[in-house]
glutamine--tRNA ligase
Amino acid sequence: MVVEDDNSEKPLDLFLKIGLDERTARNTIVNNKVTANLTAVIHEAALTNGCNRTVGNLLYTVATKFPANALVHRPTLLRYIVSSKIKTPAQLEAAFLFYSSIGSENFELKEFEESCGVDINVPIEDIERTVNEIFEENKNVILGQRYKTNVGDLFGHVRKRHPWADPKIVKQLIDVKLYGLLGEKTAADDEKPSRKKKEKQAKTESIAMDTHPPPTSEEELNPFLIFPQPEENFKVHTEIIFSDRPVLRVCNTREMLEKHLKATGGRVFTRFPPEPNGYLHIGHAKAMFVSFGLAKERDGCCYLRYDDTNPEAEKKEYIDHIEEIVRWMGWEPFKVTYTSDYFQDLYDLAVELIRRSHAYVDHQTPEEIKEYREKKMNSPWRDRPIAESLEVFDQMRRGMIEEGKATLRMKQDMQSDNYNMYDLIAYRIKFTPHPHSGDKWCIYPSYDYSHCIVDSLENITHSLCTLEFETRRASYYWLIDALGLYQPYVWEYSRLNVTNTVMSKRKLNRLVTERWVDGWDDPRLMTLAGLRRRGVTSTSINAFVRGIGITRSDCSVIRLDRLEFHIREELNKTAPRTMVVLHPLKVVITNLEVGSTMDLDAKKWPDAQIEDSSSFYKVPFSNIVYIEHTDFRMKDSKDYYGLAPGKSVLLRYAFPIKCTEVILSDDKETVVEVRAEFDPSKKTKPKGVLHWVAEPSPGIDPLKVEVRLFDKLFLSENPAELDNWLADLNPESKVVVPGAYAVPSLRTAAAGDRFQFERLGKF
């Protein structure tokens, strides 16, 4: 926790003084790490008396994003911010990139200022000329989308050409140009899907209807600016501290880098390396966005690499699913590879590691290894002769040693402060056939040994992973350095956590295998297969991930509402409207001839134009219609907009009806039928509007459908923190309505089709 003396100012007051809004300030003090960093930054900047919001926001970004390997230079950056020499998020991101590349080394201020655009003022004329060029290049798209054009994309095009342009001026010029091209907004530009505030809403698939869009900041326009170019990977960016040897300053030699660049053509190479032991979830969507997205943005390549080092947990079902879902998400792998493709290379390098006295065969049990590591004690076999380890390792490979009787361990640093340097296991014996390589091997490499080597063998430029792997960075670079291999640039980002769900594969596997849910693609799960089955699009998932950004903040659990906003944004444009009645109540229209049927036009889209016939569908209207049971009451009230005795409502796309009689069951309480008269002239103007479904022809019931209503899977926002997390499962997360009525057009609906059931939600 942040400890304060009696005279120190409370963090909340300090944060409000620098212009943070109260909500951000209160959210910040919940996180002890960010609170400590931001407090230190404010004091280093000598701004304890406050500053304007622009400077305050930059300070907050410094507190949360400044490279950990260059903290010695933070006061210098703060002086530039306070003096307004660095005043935009783009300049700040450039500063972070500069500092991450030089680490704690000294540098020339001139070089720093050039990298960050200090004292560079882009003339308004240049910005205006660029805006005009971009509008000309995208004119057809803008005219088609009008004021629904993504201004952020236009902003990003300008920033690519003028990274140091004043963002306020850019925004003003874009707005002026838009108005000049499109003129005043029309009703269609402003029209949004209508919603009656007082209408009774049936429970739907947990898509809330009142969530506002998250604001888009300037730095979110291109989240990949933070990453260095491949040719910069000769600079020191990480330092590994050992207890018994000099500091390892991680960087490639010029010769090593030139060899790498020749092999890659100077292009970005990334990888998405899932373990095929389950279905991918929404957290993997962020990992895909980061690795595939960076490669795409830099015109590079991204491998889909299966981390298949544990044959006991892997299945072909998972392998097939992963490749299929990656492509569904919109990503195309440069190549599909397997860690097992490199088993021979990995074995040969393990032999070399032993020869260099950097690995040894150990015979401790797992329990003994754990105990010795906790006590920072060397294994009794740590200093065995190299020749002996080589001989026993060969016996391991040939299946001459029992499973569990020997492992190959890396000889790292047992006195380090980093637990992940305590002689990690490189190889273990498993007499289990491998899904990809068959029974060729009975020893398998560990993740800690294999992933960094394969990164190097595949010439990966940017090895990107989540923050829980940050402490493994030391082991990653120790091993590559010990073998003299090319060293990729490693960078960690925060993992994606969403409220009201669990993301652990172990927990997901338990939900599936114990049948708490209906398989890996259950629509209540945050697996990508489950989201797809629920009707969520890949584009809305990617928009959600992009909106979150690629940050190193380790405290964020994203509210489910934020994902649902992006889902609604997409489905509002792509899912046609239709009508379904979940709990039908029969209404007999007494002044409409029995047996007569009218075909009425109903809108697929709120802004459907009369001349566009494809924007409408036909619904039959007869003397027997069905409305929701919840849309009828025996007693009316001022705040009720449904049907009641003597009251009128409008049947959407049809006519006003007035209740004239109510038929009750034998218990004299349950309503079984309502009788009403319709107004064919439509002169009646009732306030309430109801959805409905009619008999398509005399004596024929409407189309009967089963409807499934999904809600949050867990009641708590963070069930993973609970000891008995399964007890938090929401018993109402899935409700099946077997006897709903639908309009006839839904008879031809196919698997995967998406609809908006009017007044109910998206299905």
